[in-house]
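To fix ideas, we give here one paired sequence and structure record:
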Amino acid sequence: MAKQTPPPGDKQIKTLERVFSKAGAGSRTDARSWIGAGRVRVNGKMVRNPDHWVDLENDRVTLDGKPLRAASKTYVLLYKPKGYLTTYRDPEGRPTVYDLVPEVGAWISPVGRLDLDTSGLLIMTNDTDFTERLTNPDHQVPKTYQIKASTLVSDAQIERLRQGVDLADGMTRPAVVTRLRDSEKYTFLEMTITEGRNRQVRRMLEAVESKVLKLVRVAIGPIRIGDLPIGTWRHLTPEEVHALRGRAASKVIADRRHARHEEPRSEPRP
């Protein structure tokens, strides 16, 4: 079925499948299944099109005759092990992060992703606005990783990482890079970046003639993984949620203030 054009105006409009995920009632895959099975009604009328537009303020959505209500907000910090996918279901039957959080009691989604071979801090939530704050690159929320490099990394290579390196999808932003220690063959680094490109840290090391042997995300913004055992999770505290929201918001506010007070540049002389 062809996707409809959203109605004009300033109303809060979402597709029907997104209404369910935004409410924290289930995944978009679940929503499509419920809609296709005829279990969903909008203003009393059965709707089988998951792309049907819904006015969040005025339309009434029901599932099995029960009104859809937003679930209470849930924020989870998971120590993702290596070998787990950051997805709901895998066609190949590989383990996913959802296997580690069955008792949370709410439908939650990962905030960003960690690839199969990366372990560390992963936040999961049903708060879509919170997710957007943390993942929008304009907010530049810092993410910190500890790295075991495949080689001894020189000071010059570290400086290149700090200044930014040229990848296939463009220059990276400057990074905070600290040498943790050197062994006989390997360098251990801590790197903080403010972007979320696909496999970015791995590609940055390759750009300076090294490779990543082990990668662990240890922090997002001010929240560190601490002594949480691998493969386990805990709820974020209200203070931690507030700190993460504030970190994302403060970057946007600072950028706006800078843009407002920046003096216009003079035109170059002919």
Summary: The longest helix spans residues 238-261. Confidence is low (pLDDT under 50) at residues 251-270. The CA atoms of residues 62 and 68 lie 5 Å apart. The first strand starts at residue 13 and ends at 15.
